[in-house]
Each structure stands twice: as C-alpha cells, then as structure tokens.
C-alpha cells in the first residue's frame, strides 16, 4: 500500500471517529466550520438525526455546492469574527481546519461564543507528534504536516506530495499541534476536554494502525477531540 492510499484510509477512519462522537439529538442545530461541499456535514446531521445543519465556507464554489445539498451556508473567513449569533448552535464541527488558520485563538473564541451553554465541539487536526513526523526529523527531513512555503511542498522526499504546488493558500498548514498543546489551548479558552482520540498510525495500515493509535495516541496521525462549553449555573 502506498502513502497516498494510507492517507485516504486514515482520512476515512478519522471521519468515522468524528461521527462516533456525535450525539443523537433531533433538535440539535449543527454548525460545520469549513464545510467544503457539504457532503460530510450531511453525514454528521444524519448521525445526530437532525435536519438543522448549517455551514461556513470560505471558497465561493464550495459554498454553492453545499447550498445545493440543502445546507444553510454563509461564506466567511474563519480567521475573522463570524457573522453568527452567540449561543445559537448545539454542535460545532471543524475537521482539518484549525491547522490552516493564523488566528487560532480568535477561531476558538468564536467556537465558544456561538455554542449554546452545554453544547459541544468536535475538532480534528494533524498531530505534530505523529510517529511519521518524528522519524522525518530523525532523518533530517521536514515533518509531513509542517509546511514551509505558501507555494510548494518541499523538504521531505518521503512525502508523496513533495514538489507539488498548493492548490490555494488555504491548503497551507500554519499551526500544527501536539496532543498536549491542543488540549491546553482549548482549556485556556474555557472548554472542558471530554475526549482526545488518536487516529491512524503511519506507516502502518488498517487494523494494525487502529490498535496502535488506541495504545499510543500521542504518536498518531490525527488528533480528534470533543470539548464542551460549560452549562449555565441555575
């Protein structure tokens, strides 16, 4: 199995992990930040058994495709204050978004602001401490998930994407997290961290990777976290 196939399989496993963290709530209002074409947002809504699905997407064409699927989408920059009412959503989802943002703190504050008290967010992002990144450093190569150019992917000849141009500035990784830094940053911004799960374990495939990531989440490929905003005191 080549690295691109491994990447695809880990991405599928990560999406399954996200869905496992979604609670069934027919009345839930769900916001997918960075919803792309809306395909996965609909799967999240189906898992929750709700029809109340919303999205924010920066790219105009992707936002239009999501709207064609029936998702209520606003086009906005996730680095900025969002044009969304405070305490208006029960669930916020952001998969492979956080690493692309320069205004990380503002984004997390906005997630907290738009969540209802007692609401939760599911966040997934690449793991800087992944075994594949550590081995890259041992051999003097750039970690897979840490980009050094806004134009081209360079620095790691083992990366199947090495030498490829970024399709857009939005694909560049700006902030990459370890498990400890991810947990501490969300805690700092007022969230209770309920679960932090490791997904995937390069270079190992399939079921073996699933076992290894459960035993050693610190060195997994992805970090998928469920955090909750405190309920209001009565």
From TrEMBL:
InterPro entries, alphabetized: SAM-dependent_MTases_sf
Pfam family, one: Methyltransf_23
Keyword Thylakoid included in the entry's annotation: no
Keywords from the UniProt entry: Methyltransferase, Transferase
Entry keyword annotation includes Methyltransferase: yes
GO aspect biological process, one term: methylation
GO molecular function: methyltransferase activity
Name assigned to this protein: Methyltransferase, putative
Originating organism: Methanothrix soehngenii (strain ATCC 5969 / DSM 3671 / JCM 10134 / NBRC 103675 / OCM 69 / GP-6)
Lineage start: Archaea, Methanobacteriati, Methanobacteriota, Stenosarchaea group, Methanomicrobia
């Amino acid at each position: 199995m080549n690295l691109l196939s491994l990447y695809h399989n880990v991405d599928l496993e990560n999406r399954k992990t996200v869905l496992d963290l979604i609670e069934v709530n027919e009345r839930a209002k769900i916001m997918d930040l960075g919803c792309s074409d809306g395909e996965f947002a609909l799967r999240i809504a189906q898992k929750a058994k709700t029809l109340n699905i919303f999205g924010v997407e920066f790219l105009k064409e992707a936002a239009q495709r999501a709207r064609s699927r029936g998702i209520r989408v606003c086009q906005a920059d996730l680095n900025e204050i969002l044009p969304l009412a405070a305490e208006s959503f029960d669930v916020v989802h952001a998969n492979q978004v956080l690493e692309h943002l320069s205004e990380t703190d503002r984004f997390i504050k906005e997630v907290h602001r738009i969540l209802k008290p007692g609401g939760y967010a599911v966040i997934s992002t690449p793991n800087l401490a992944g075994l594949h990144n550590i081995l890259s450093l041992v051999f003097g190569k750039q970690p897979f998930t840490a980009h050094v150019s806004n134009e081209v992917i360079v620095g790691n000849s083992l990366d199947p994407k090495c030498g490829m141009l970024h399709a857009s500035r939005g694909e560049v990784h700006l902030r990459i997290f370890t498990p400890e830094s991810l947990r501490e940053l969300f805690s700092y911004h007022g969230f209770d961290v309920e679960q932090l799960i490791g997904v995937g374990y390069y270079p190992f495939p399939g079921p073996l990777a699933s076992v290894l990531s459960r035993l050693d989440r610190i060195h997994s490929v992805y970090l998928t976290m469920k955090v909750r905003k405190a309920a209001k005191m009565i």
